[in-house]
Amino acid sequence: MAKTADSKTATEAAGTKTGTGKAPRARSAAETEKIRAALSERRDELRLEYDQTMSEIAELQRDRLTDSAGDDQADTGTKTFEREQEISLANSIQERISQVERALERLDDGTYGWCERCGNTIPVERLAAFPSATLCVTCKQLEERR
């Protein structure tokens, strides 16, 4: 199915492909707004997910306070493990919210789509897969090897 200009995703509007040695074309105001809208929508989705996770943690805590009488060590360990998993999930969601907010800041200051380490453009394909990317593929691979 062919995409029309209206169905083009915000991240596809982020710039041109790299590898040609050319600087990416400047984004139009409409393209920038599409990217901003997509990032803002993702941030809002993550905030909702975070709020739901925090509600689940609070509910688990309330349940543990009332149901913990008579628990053996295995029950206590299971409940502790579940709580730690929920907290880890909440922290992960919070980190993703921070990444999206950082992408929005980079969009505002004109550095969105540029690698923070080497200064090259981040390929549109990478931004489509991970809109809050701050490193090009090469720099990200180098970072992960460390």
Summarize the structure.
A zinc finger (dksA C4-type) spans 115-139. The protein has 146 residues and is mainly alpha-helical.
Task: State the main characteristics.
about 150 residues, mainly alpha, 2 domains, about 0% strand, disordered N terminus
Kindly describe this structure.
Residues 110-145 form the Zinc finger DksA/TraR C4-type domain. Residues 1-43, 61-84 are annotated as: Disordered. This is TraR/DksA family transcriptional regulator. Pfam families: zf-dskA_traR (PF01258). Residues 28-43 have a biased composition (Basic and acidic residues). With 146 residues, the chain is mainly alpha-helical. The protein has two domains: 27-110; 113-146, no CATH class. The chain is built from four helices and no strands. Helix 1 runs antiparallel to helix 2 (73-109). The model is unreliable at 1-22 (pLDDT under 50).
What does the overall shape look like? elongated
| Share in helix | 55-70%
Overall average pLDDT: 80
State the end-to-end CA separation: 41 Å
N-to-C SSE string, H for helix and E for strand = HHHH
Into how many domains do the coordinates divide?
2
Number of strands: 0
Query: Total number of helical segments?
Result: 4
Radius of gyration: 21 Å
Protein name: TraR/DksA family transcriptional regulator
Domain Zinc finger DksA/TraR C4-type: 110-145
Biased composition (Basic and acidic residues): 28-43
InterPro entries: DnaK_N, Znf_C4-type_bac, Znf_DskA_TraR, Znf_DskA_TraR_CS
